[in-house]
Amino acid sequence: MTEIRHVSDTARWVAFYRAMETQRPDALFHDPFAAKLAGAKGEAIVDDLPRGRQMAWAMVVRTQVFDEIILDRIRTGDVDLVLNLAAGLDARPWRLTQLPSSLRWVDVDLPAILDYKLETLAGEKTICHYDAVRLDLTDSSKRGVLFEKLGRASKRVLVVTEGLLIYLTPEQVADLARDLHVPRAFRWWLIDLISPRLLNMMQRSWGARLEIANAPFKFAPAEGTKFFEPLGWSEVEYRSALEEGHRLKREMRGAWLWRLLSKLASKRGQAETRRMSGSVLLERIP
Question: Are 240 and 62 in contact (CB under 8 A)?
Answer without folding.
Answer: no
